[in-house]
Specification:
Blueprint (H helix, E strand, L loop, with lengths): L4 H4 L2 H15 L4 E8 L21 E3 L8 E6 L5 E8 L9 E3 L1 H7 L6 E9 L1
Parallel strand pairs: 1-5, 2-4
Antiparallel strand pairs: 1-6, 2-5, 3-4, 3-6
Length: 124
């Protein structure tokens, strides 16, 4: 019973099992959908996580991601992207995937269009 661990267990099998478990726990967090941006009337209002909304910050509303999650939003029409922080929620019936601040919309190049197809990726 006092054999070295290398004799009791096949270390290669243990390492392979560990690597497989690590790979299975990695989840890809990406989604496609439509993005819009906040109307100016929301400036200064309180967000769902109790911050004061400001159009000049890189923030966003998303209905399921935790507050504080950083998300890379890529405009699928022109390829522009921006990283925003989730700090608000949208109306539960809103079909939009994400609602970004005006500063983020400018970086995405979607202010004129108002609504664009996007790819969302969680930034670690």
């Amino acid at each position: 019973m006092n054999r070295p661990i290398a004799k009791r267990f096949n270390l290669n099998a243990l390492m392979a099992a560990f690597v497989c478990c690590c790979m299975l726990s990695v989840q890809v967090h990406a989604a496609t959908g439509t993005a819009t941006y906040y109307a100016d009337r929301f400036e200064g209002r309180t967000t769902a996580n109790s911050e004061t909304f400001a159009q000049e910050k890189l923030t966003a509303a998303h209905n399921s991601l935790p507050f504080g999650t950083r998300v890379k939003v890529t405009n699928l029409v022109n390829g522009n992207s921006v990283v925003v922080r989730v700090n608000d929620r949208m109306h539960s019936r809103n079909p939009t995937l994400i609602d970004v601040s005006k500063k983020a919309a400018k970086e995405l190049g979607c202010v004129r269009a108002g609504r664009v197809p996007v790819l969302l990726e969680i930034v670690p």
